[in-house]
Amino acid sequence: xxxxxxxxxxxxxxxxxxxxxxxxxPVSLAGLRGGPVVLVFVPFAFxxxxxxxLCELRDNIADFQEAxxxxxxxxxxPMFSLRAWAEKEGYAFDLLSDFWPHGEVARAYGVFDEAxxxxxxxxxxxxxxxxxxxxxxxxxxxxRPLAAYREALxxx
Length: 156
Prior knowledge:
This protein has 156 residues and is α/β, with parallel strands linked by helices. The chain has one domain (18-154): Glutaredoxin. It is built from 5 helices and 9 strands. The protein has helices at residues 48-59, 61-66, 79-89, 104-108, 146-154, and strands at residues 18-20, 26-28, 37-41, 70-75, 94-97, 112-113, 118-119, 121-126, 132-138. The strands form 3 sheets. The chain has a 5-stranded mixed beta sheet. The longest helix is centred in the middle third of the chain and has 12 residues, at 48-59. It is globular and about 35 Å long. The relative contact order is 0.25.
């Protein structure tokens, strides 16, 4: 498995990004400045582990809202797949498509799996000034626990 060579360092600026949401509207990290952001990279729309993780985030979105945190999920799936997934599961947070150039943002965050063409399970908390404050990357098939997000949010 070949991950991106960009090892992100807590305390350093996070790479900027601009990706389309489920309706094709560009969302940029720079445009979200002024408030903290959690980026959640997932391998595949509609897969069991990813759906379980995002449903848990959906069901606990108040944790993020109360902390003033913008939640954005990033996948290498096409925009239309992400829209169908969001509609089926009732996700009210941003799902952003890193489909083309394929995996470019996942590479910038060091979570693109070149061998299989998808993002690894990486999560990143970026503060209001665009500085990386926390990150976790889990192995294939291993969901990120909600407790890890809660701990990161408490550190803000």
